[in-house]
Amino acid sequence: MPELPEVETVRRGLIPALEGAKLVEVVQRRKDLRKPFPENFVSRLEGRTVLRLERRAKYIMCVLDDGWELLIHLGMSGKVRIFEGNPEDYQAHDHLEFVTDGPKWIRYNDPRRFGLMDLIAPMGRSQHPLLRDLGPEPLGDDFSAEVLEKAFAGKKAPLKAVLLDQRVVAGLGNIYVCEALHRAGLAPTLPAYQADKDRIERLYLAIGDILRAAIAAGGSSLRDHRQTDGELGYFQHQFDVYGREGESCKSCAKDGRTTLIERIVQSGRSTFYCPVCQG
DNA sequence: CGCTCCACCTGAACGC
DNA sequence: TGCGTTCAGGTGGAGC
Question: Of the candidates A229, A245, A172, A136, which has an alpha carbon nearest to the alpha carbon of residue A2?
């Protein structure tokens, strides 16, 4: 499910409930998600205070008062909800609960269990196997057209596949890659090394524009994504291509042309694009 | 190493 | 109504 804008929406939603709050009780209902929970997960969290919530790529990092960090990845279907006080009985796939001294009740639900959690030792973030190979944050100072240019050099994989590679730039997924390529007017099938400076500059700008707009809309809700209050995200209404196979291209329509969005499969995943303005 | 494919898991949507 | 098939926002390991 969640790409950078959805994860950032969840992080922002969690701030008022978790920053400065003590975890007075942690309820863990199964031993694993995609990976096993860390050893003694509950006892290592109970009594800890959360100092800050940060985000790296699609990971939420909870910085704890003992220097350790709780790392959360939502996988495809992970959801975090915040309740005031004790919510009614738990439902299927409610795998984890955090009770704070707030008292806010934070619940992690993940039907497909592609999510994962881990504990990172103090100062261990840069060595962590899930984090160490990540590329730059697309909304951070380390990301630029030059970074893309270097990453694209010599790569004959299509732009779609290269932008999904978290080592190139961290946080994009299937939706926002499709949308960014459309906004930049680039064919998803173009071998990365063939993209010239001009196109790369457009792509760089498009990525930032799309992500900022999506965060402002609370992310995109297709099936699973919810904000932490249960509210939907709204960016799906602004999609130009994603999920719009057979519908008309909005930017072509502005130029007085009628063209239809197409769907192809690249590295096993749907790509939506306009064959005319992404020529 | 570069690249593609597949499995991991559940549920929703669709066709018959 | 029910059953089988397909697909889904991610990721890492297998395999070529």
Answer: A172
- Low-confidence stretches of chain A (pLDDT < 70) are 1
Give the tokens for residue A93.
């796939």
Spot the catalytic one: A2, A136, A158, A188: A2
Residues whose CB is less than 8 angstroms from the CB of residue A206 and which lie 6 or more positions away in sequence, other chains included: A180, A181, A183, A184
Whose CA is closest to A97, among A7, A88, A112, A221? A88
- Statement: the CB of A115 is under 7 Å from strand C: no
Judged by C1' against the alpha carbon of A242, the nearest nucleotide is C9
- Name residue A182's amino acid: H
Terminal CA-to-CA distance of chain A, rounded, Å?
28
- The answer to whether A195 touches A159, Cβ cutoff 8 Å, is yes
pTM, entire model: 0.97
pLDDT for res A190: 96
pLDDT for residue A1:
63
Verify if strand B has an atom below 7 Å from the CB of A31: no
**Under 8 Å between Cβ of A83 and A94:** no
Tokens 């990540």, located at residue: A134
Predicted pLDDT at A279: 82
